[in-house]
Structure formats: C-alpha cells, structure tokens
Amino acid sequence: MECRRCPRLVEWRERVAREKVRRFITEEYWGRPVPAFGAPEAALIVIGLAPAAHGGNRTGRIFTGDRSGDWLYEALHECGFASRPVSLSRDDGLVLRDCLVTAAVRCAPPDNRPLPVEYDNCREYLVRELELAKKTRVVVALGQVAFRSYLQIRKKSRGPLISTKFGFHHGGEWRLPEGIVLISSYHPSQQNTQTGKLNRAMFHSIFRRAREIIE
Fold first, then answer.
1. CA atoms of 154 and 149, how far apart (whole Å)
2. CA distance 69 to 168
3. Mean pLDDT confidence for 183-205
4. pLDDT score, position 159
5. Among 174, 212, 187, which Cα is nearest to 69's?
6. Residues 36, 42, 43, 45: what is their CA dihedral angle, to the nearest 10 degrees?
7. What domains are defined for the chain?
8. Which of 189, 188, 184 is nearest to 171 (CA)?
9. For residue range 38-92, what is the model confidence (pLDDT) as tens digits?
10. pLDDT band at 155 (very low <50, low <70, confident <90, very high)
C-alpha cells in the first residue's frame, strides 16, 4: 500500500522514520501507510483512529508496538480473537481469529490528530474493507473519531440509519438494519488508561460482549 495524498502526513511519517527515538534507534521503521490486520471475512471488525508514530508507523502493523496495542491484543486474546496477548512486530507470529483490525486513517498524524481533509482522503480504504466484509457481525469503534467515521460511511453507502440516537459513550450498543451490532468503546490511549478513564475491566467487557453476540 502506497499513498501520498496528504502532504502533512507523508512528511510526518517519513520524518519520524528517519529521526526515530532513542529506544528504537537501531530499528528500521515502516514509515508508510499501515494496512489493516486480519481477514475481511471476519465476524468482528475493530476500528481505531490511526497508527502511532512509534507503534504502527514503526512496525508496519496496526496497533503493534505501543501501549494501545498492548491493551487491545490482550483483550482480543482473552476473548479468543487473537492467538497471543502481545503484539510486538509484524512477524511475531500473532494470528487474529475471526477478527479484522483497521483504522480511520492509515498514516501516523502529528499529535495523533488527523485533519478533516486527511480523513476524507483516507476514507476509501475503510470503505473498501467494509464492502469486502460480508460476514461482519460486530463492529467495535475505539474512540469517538472511529465511531463517527464508521457511521458516516454507513450513512453514505447504505442510506439513512433507522436510529438517530448514536451518542458515543463507552459500552454503547446499537443493532443496525442488516443485523450488524455497533459497539462503542473508549480508545485505549495512554491519555485514557493512565488517567483511569478506561480500565482493563471496562475494556475487556467490550470484547466479551462482542464474543457473546457472535456466538
């Protein structure tokens, strides 16, 4: 996957890959758009915000090599969606089971904040994945941005949604017209986990609920 539509993101992802940080100084950074991880025929789709500068932008795999990924894959493993509870690199042997992990934006943004035009430029990649996902039962949106991105795509591609009460909150659950269940969760960012806004029990409950629905 190669894309240079967003000059700001291209400049940032490549600069981070060149300059690195001390703890990863000997590693070769990915420094390109980060693809989804998993299979499109999965029953569970997890949507995040964007790759972390020294996480996915370094390793080349979404939610891999950073604290957010530690939380995510631990929860996925506990609920049977991942073969291992940790995700260190794209060749570490981790396998997802009936799960696809993706993001609203594929390049690491400065300060973890993509611009509206960057969401627009990147949207087609998520649209394609959702179109290929014929067996989706549950969509988990990590954070308000991923939540809104998913609903915007659904509205444009499949027409108005039955419910207009899609207020983001942790543990929100909505059954969409064709039976897909949308679950909203706080993002496992350090801003949320270190302040106690999100704890492990809260986060793991999201994926236990996803497992219950799928089964």
1. 9
2. 22
3. 97
4. 55
5. 187
6. 0
7. 7-214 (3.40.470.10)
8. 184
9. 998 999 999 999 999 999 999 999 999 999 999 999 999 999 999 999 999 999 9
10. confident
Question: What is the three-state SS of 122-174?
Answer: HHHHHHHHHHHCCCCCEEEEECHHHHHHHHHHHHHHHCCCCCCCCCCCCCEEE
Structure tokens at 149: 């991105």
The string over 180-210, giving b where at least 16 C-beta atoms fall within 10 Å of a residue's C-beta and e elsewhere, is bbbbbbbbbbeebbeeeebeeebbbebbebb
How far lies 43's CA from each of 8, 13, 87, 122, 212, in Å? 34, 31, 21, 23, 12
Contacts 24+ apart (CB under 8 A), 195-198: 198/170
DSSP state of 87: -
Closest CA to 196 of 188, 204, 207: 188
Cα–Cα distance measured from residue 116 to residue 215, given in angstroms and rounded to the nearest whole number = 37
DSSP 8-state class, residue 36: P
